[in-house]
Design brief:
Blueprint lengths: L6 E6 L4 H16 L7 E7 L5 H16 L5 H5 L2 E5 L5 H18 L5 E5 L6 H10 L9 E5 L7 H12 L7 E3 L7 H11 L13 E9 L8 H5 L2 H19 L8 H14 L8 H4 E4 L1 E6 L2 E3 L17 E6 L11 E6 L6 E8 L18 E7 L3 E9 L7 E9 H5 L6 H10 L9 H20 L7 E3 L5 H8 L18
Parallel strand pairs: 1-2, 1-4, 2-3, 4-5, 5-6, 7-12, 9-17
Antiparallel strand pairs: 7-13, 8-11, 9-10, 11-12, 13-14, 14-15, 15-16
The chain binds nicotinamide-adenine-dinucleotide (NAD).
Length: 498
C-alpha cells in the first residue's frame, strides 16, 4: 500500500559520485515511470558554491550520462534546488531550514522530509546532531534519515554513530542502505524460497550439502585507495552485503511479509551464527591481497602499487569464509562466502548444492553424477538455473546434466529497476524492509570484529593471489578439506532465452 509520497528530499553530498551516478538517475527513472507525484522537490547540499541553474545542469548531465535519454528532463530538473553548505556550521543549517520551508510551502509537501546522507561517513553523526539542534527535523510530516555505508568500522564505532543519529531519529525513521537489498534477484531469494513447494521442504540440512556465495570483481581499488585502506574486503563487503545474503538464504519463513517480521527472522539468523575467534579464524576464514597479473590481456599492477595505498599495506582485497549457522535447520551445513577484487569475472552468484542421492544408478561417462544445484544469478545476469540429471539421448541409460534456466534479463531487459531506484521508492513509501535494522548491523559487526581482531595480530603474507585469478589457493583448500569445491563461475552462466 502506497503512503503519502510527497516529500522534500535533501541530498547531503549532492556534487559527489554517488549522487551523480546513482541517485539522480534513479530519481529520474521513478519520475519517468510516473512514480513521483508532482509534489516532490530535491535540495542538493554540498560545500561548493553553485547556482540552481548549474546544479540543475549537473543533474541533467548525470541522467543523460547514466541513461542516455532526457525525455521531459526540463520538467524533472525544475524540481531541483541547491544550497551551498558547510556541514559543521550551524548557520548553514539555519539558512537551509528557511529554504526548506519555502520549498515545502511552494510544492505543498506536507512537511515530509527525507535526509539522504551521501557523504563521507565521518560527517554522519555531526549532520544528524545539527539537523535536530538547528530545527530541520522539527516538521509536521514524516522525517526519515537515509544513511550510506559504511555504518561504522567496528561494533564500537557503529554503536557510537548509532547513538548520535538516534538523538535525532527513531529506529523506525532510520533507513540504513545496503544496496544489495535493492537488487532484483536478492529480493527474489525469499520469493524463490517461500513461493515454491518444490524448494521449501528441501531447504534444510537434510537435503542441502552446502551453499556458496561469490561476489567477485574484475576491477581493482581504482581511485578509492584512501577509503579502502581503512576498510578492506571484510568490512566493505562481508559485514554488510555477504552477511545479508546469508541471512536471506537461511531465515525461517516469516509469519507475514511485514518489515518487522522479516527483520526479526533475519536477526534470528545473525544470533545463530557460530562465533569464530582466536586461532579458530584460520580454520574458517582466508584473506588475500592481489598482486600484479593480467586481466583481459592487460597487465595490471599489484594492490600495493595502487594510488594512495601503503607500499606495505596489509589490507585484504579478498575474503573467503565458512559461516556456520548453529540452529535446527542448518546444523552442519556450511555457507561458504567469497568476495574480492581483481578476480577473473565480475559476478555475484549463489549456488545451493543439494546432497547426493542415496544410491547412484546412473554414471555419466567416466564420472559420477552431478549433484543438483540451484544457482541464483544476482549480477550481472539476473536469473535462476536448476541443474538436474536426465537421460542422454540415444540407446543407453547414461545420465547427463541438463539446466533449466530463467533469465530475468531476457524477459524484462529494459524494465529491471536499478537497486537505488527501488530503495528510494521504498523510503518515500515508508517501507523499511530492505534496509538494515540496527540489530542486524550490531550482530554482524560483532561476528566480523572477532575475525579482524585476529587478523590484526597475525602477520599477513601479501600479496598472495595474482590479479585475474579466483583468489589465493587457501580459499580452495577451505572447501577441499570439507570435501567440496567452488563451482567454477563460468560453468554456471545462465543461458539467456530472449
Ligand atoms: P564523494 O567524495 O564523491 O562526494 C562527497 C560529497 O560530500 C561532495 O558532494 C562534497 O561536496 C560533500 N562534502 C564533503 N565535505 C563537505 C562539507 N564539509 N560540507 C558539505 N559538503 C561536503 O563521495 P561519494 O562517493 O559520493 O560517497 C558518498 C557516500 O556514499 C559515502 O558514505 C560512501 O561510502 C557511500 N557510497 C558511495 C558509493 C559510490 O558508488 N560512490 C557506493 C556505496 C556507498
Amino acid at each position: 500500500m502506497e503512503q503519502n509520497m510527497n516529500s522534500l528530499i535533501m541530498i547531503f553530498g549532492a556534487t559527489g559520485d554517488l549522487a551523480k551516478r546513482k541517485l539522480f538517475p534513479s530519481l529520474y527513472r521513478l519520475f519517468e515511470r510516473g512514480r513521483l507525484t508532482n509534489k516532490f522537490a530535491v535540495i542538493g547540499v554540498a560545500r561548493r558554491p553553485l547556482s540552481n541553474d548549474e546544479f540543475q545542469q549537473s543533474v541533467k548531465d548525470s541522467v543523460v550520462a547514466a541513461l542516455g535519454r532526457d525525455k521531459n528532463i526540463e520538467e524533472f530538473i525544475s524540481h531541483f534546488y541547491y544550497q551551498s553548505h558547510d556541514v559543521t556550521d550551524s548557520n548553514s543549517y539555519i539558512s537551509l531550514k528557511k529554504f526548506a520551508e519555502q520549498i515545502d510551502y511552494h510544492y505543498s509537501l506536507d512537511g515530509n522530509r527525507i535526509f539522504y546522507l551521501a557523504m563521507a561517513p565521518e560527517f554522519f553523526g555531526t549532520i544528524a546532531l545539527h539537523l535536530k539542534s538547528d530545527g530541520l527535523t522539527d516538521v509536521s510530516g514524516y522525517k526519515r534519515l537515509v544513511i550510506e555505508k559504511p555504518f561504522g568500522h567496528d561494533l564500537e564505532s557503529a554503536k557510537e554513530l548509532n547513538k548520535q543519529i538516534r538523538t535525532a531519529f527513531s529506529e523506525e525513521e532510520i533507513y540504513r542502505i545496503d544496496h544489495y537489498l535493492g537488487k532484483e534477484m536478492v529480493r527474489n531469494i525469499e520469493v524463490i524460497r517461500f513461493a515454491n513447494a518444490i524448494f521449501e521442504p528441501l531447504w534444510n540440512n537434510r537435503y542441502i550439502s552446502n551453499i556458496q556465495i561469490t561476489s567477485s570483481e574484475i576491477l581493482g581499488v581504482e581511485e578509492r585507495g584512501r577509503y579502502y585502506e581503512t576498510s578492506g574486503a571484510l568490512r566493505d563487503m562481508v559485514q554488510n552485503h555477504m552477511m545479508q545474503m546469508v541471512a536471506l538464504l537461511a531465515m525461517e519463513p516469516p509469519i507475514k511479509l511485514s518489515t518487522n517480521e522479516i527483520r526479526s527472522e533475519k536477526v534470528r539468523v545473525f544470533r545463530s551464527l557460530r562465533a569464530v575467534e582466536g586461532e579458530e579464524v584460520k580454520d574458517y576464514f582466508v584473506r588475500g591481497q592481489y598482486g600484479e597479473g593480467t586481466i583481459e590481456d592487460e597487465q595490471v599492477q599489484a594492490y600495493r602499487n595502487e594510488p594512495m595505498v601503503d607500499k606495505q599495506s596489509t589490507t585484504e582485497t579478498f575474503v573467503a569464509g565458512k559461516v556456520m549457522i548453529d540452529n535446527f535447520r542448518w546444523a552442519g551445513v556450511p555457507f561458504y562466502i567469497r568476495t574480492g577484487k581483481r578476480m577473473t569475472e565480475k559476478s555475484t552468484k549463489i549456488v545451493i548444492q543439494f546432497k547426493d542421492i542415496p544410491m547412484n544408478l546412473y554414471y555419466q561417462t567416466e564420472k559420477m553424477l552431478n549433484p543438483n544445484l540451484l544457482v541464483i544469478h544476482i549480477q550481472p545476469e539476473e536469473g535462476i538455473t536448476l541443474h538436474l540429471n536426465a537421460k542422454k539421448a540415444g540407446g543407453h541409460l547414461d545420465a547427463q546434466e541438463v539446466k533449466l534456466s530463467f533469465a530475468n534479463t531476457g524477459v524484462h531487459a529494459m524494465n529491471t529497476p536499478e537497486g537505488y531506484e527501488k530503495l528510494l521508492f521504498d523510503c518515500m513509501n515508508g517501507d523499511a524492509t530492505n534496509f538494515t535494522h540496527w540489530d542486524e548491523v550490531a550482530y554482524s559487526w560483532s561476528f566480523v570484529d572477532k575475525i579482524s581482531k585476529f587478523w590484526q595480530k597475525e602477520q599477513a603474507s601479501f600479496p598472495n593471489y595474482q590479479s585475474g585469478t579466483m583468489g589465493p589457493n587457501a580459499a580452495d583448500e577451505l572447501l577441499e578439506k570439507d570435501g567440496f569445491f567452488w563451482w567454477p563461475v563460468t560453468d554456471l552462466e545462465v543461458d539467456i532465452c530472449k
